[in-house]
Design a protein that fits this description.
Blueprint lengths: L25 H9 L45 H4 L18 H6 L4 H23 L7 H28 L3 H22 L2 H12 L8 H16 L6 H31 L2 E3 L10 H13 L12 E3 L3 H10 L3 H12 L10 H17 L5 H6 L6 H32 L8 H16 L3 H4 L5 H16 L2 E4 L12 E7 L2 E11 L10 E6 L16 E8 L12 H18 L21 H7 L5 H7 L11 H9 L5 H18 L5 H4 L2 H12 L15 H4 L9 H19 L4 H16 L7 H9 L6 H6 L3 H4 L1
Parallel strand pairs: 5-7
Antiparallel strand pairs: 1-2, 3-4, 4-5, 6-7
Length: 785
Amino acid sequence: MKWILTTRGAQHLRTTRVPSRGSGAQRTRAVLLTRRDLNPHTGKTRSRGAAKAGGNQNQHARGFSACFASASGNSRFVSMAAAGATMEKPLLAQTELGTPLYDQVKDTTDKVVPSLKELLGELNAELTVLEESVGGSGGVSWETLVVPLEKIVDRLGKTWSVVTHLKAVCDTKALRDAVEEVQPEQVAFSLRLSQSEPLYRGFKAIREGAEWNGLSEARQRIVLENLRDAELAGVALQGEEKEKFNAIQQELSKLSTKFSNNVLDGTKAFVKTITDKAEVDGLPASALALASQTAVSKGHEGSTAEEGPWVFTLDIPSYLPVMLHAKNRALREETYKAYLTRASEGEIDNTPVITRILELRKQQANLLGYKCYADVSLAAKMATLDQANQLLEELRMASYDVAKKDMEEVKAFAKENGFDHELKHWDVNFWAERMREAKFDVNDEILRPYFPLPQVMQGLFDLVNKLFGIEVEAADGMTPIWNKDVRFFKISKDGKPQSYFYYDPYSRPEEKRGGAWMDEVVGRSKVLAPEGTEVRLPVAHMVCNQSPPIGDAPSLMTFREVETLFHEFGHALQHMLTQQEEGLVAGIRGVEWDAVELPSQFMENWCYHKRTLLGFAKHWETGEPLPDELYQKLVAAKNYRSGTMMMRQLHFACTDLGLHSDYDPAVHGTIYDFENSIADKTMILKPLPEDRFLCSFGHIFAGGYAAGYYSYKWAEVLSADAFSAFEDAGLEDDAKIADTGVRFRDTVLALGGGKAPELVFKEFRGRDPSTEPLLRHSGLTAATA
């Protein structure tokens, strides 16, 4: 069927509530700020449920750093401060690339608070000067308003992101305390910036002035977004209403941080030590080796993979093997329930945190004249609430019966193989994995040896060279890093540097939050170009939590970890390959939320492309390529239980939208009662009474996906259709693939937020998107026939 997009985005203005002397413009300026979690509603954290795992970090770099030639000889690009001199205020210093002095900031957390306070003082003074300038009698122009504004926003966003990034990857009590102390002042400045009446009037003057028709499309988008986002910041609010709105924003920021801290603490709290070999029966050698390595790191010096003791945690590389392979049903039950109830008891119980967040978001929406928070969230997205719900229902109808059949098949298989109990939640994945093995004779343990991290990285780099004409090379030593396992790379095109990125691959459960994400370090900008250059080049960081190296082996990845790496690199490419020079809409900035997953999910498709996969899937010891038989089994298993997987994501999306639109405690009871009512339509096996998944649903309570989790499916329609353009061209025709890749690069990856995403898609694809490729790729087309 045809999927019609309504052009909204920056054109959507509710100007009837704007007084003649309005207040600020939050979300476009916040696009720079909140991609670094400056705001609990709109922080652009790229989280995709990837893994955390324990292990001896001293072994982690083995095989990875040796994969690429070191570029430390390029250290001339690093400022003297970054090259080794200890700075008095490292948080406020940077290298010549514009990158932070992560190592020094990490080691001098006592200087974080005074440095941030100093910066905020300077920025407040600069904002005062800017307000006086645009409020004067000299008129307003792009150069007098937007150029200085971009500089202010960039300084704050870039500096604050150093702190929030280190807190995510090197969490310490000192960093938590620093964030807690200075966050109220940071939020206060962001609110002042967002609600600045002189800046709002300045943008309105540009929109209504003679300069407007001469502005580029990107500049017009910036102005329109600022006007729209001023309303979402409370432009019409005065007096007590504005004070209440700002107090809510302060409290939400604290609650978001608290939620995230509680999840990390709840995950770390579970440690299961096993000494009886019979209790780990069924677990593969890789899982036992990881559990032994974790045991050694926790003081069991004599532990071996063969004899134990073994230590298991709730980090995904430790948790999943237990759920998939452990014959010990009691162990599966204990581990499953521990994972499902993280951060739901005692001092780290997120239940009251969630309840309060939902209350405050609704209050904010009502203050802004909206019925519910979902309306606020979707006011700046491609979809309306009705359109989002319509897509989710279309996918649900195509998937529910398939998911029901999936469950019936697992139950029958378990019974046929001697399982005479009622199939519980902790049994489903175990027996589904046995059925997968019986059907396809393939599993992660068979595939792992063919996916050593260095080869996967090189295969990824070879792919983007073929698709987009870019070269990726190691650039270690050009900039400071926060952990010895972190790598630094340079991207070039036609011999000229285009961008750079960090890659932090392994889990560090004692200090690093779970998941996988990409974020920007600095963005492309003509205004902020270093002296002697035409434009500042973008820098990104990619963070994963994949399986660490064990013993003498490199990191041997699961296939899902390979997909996750490709996914995050897709996000990074949109940031790094942008050709947009207006900093406020370059790369991922200014891209509507429900389109931002397009490049990431597009890249995942290449993991199943035979020539791409076989180009890097080689046994880490023998060099033997992945046998064709295994490849065929991998592809055959791609849509195994596709209905179940689709319904899982739809449950998350429907729960999210429902909590932020329909939920009323007086009508629906607790948040868990409400989730259970959603589950009646989205889950075949209903949740346990003690299910507290919401207490760790960081996407919507500590990230940027509140009333936006549907974006994964919305953007997956776009990404599947985008990949179908390569299918139409012929996946084995290198010349046509290259031509199509250049078109994708020059539209989806290059244009950033300077053009409405529906127009960007149409420019690439030549038409509106269709749901057909997604349903076909998911093996669900027959279900809709």
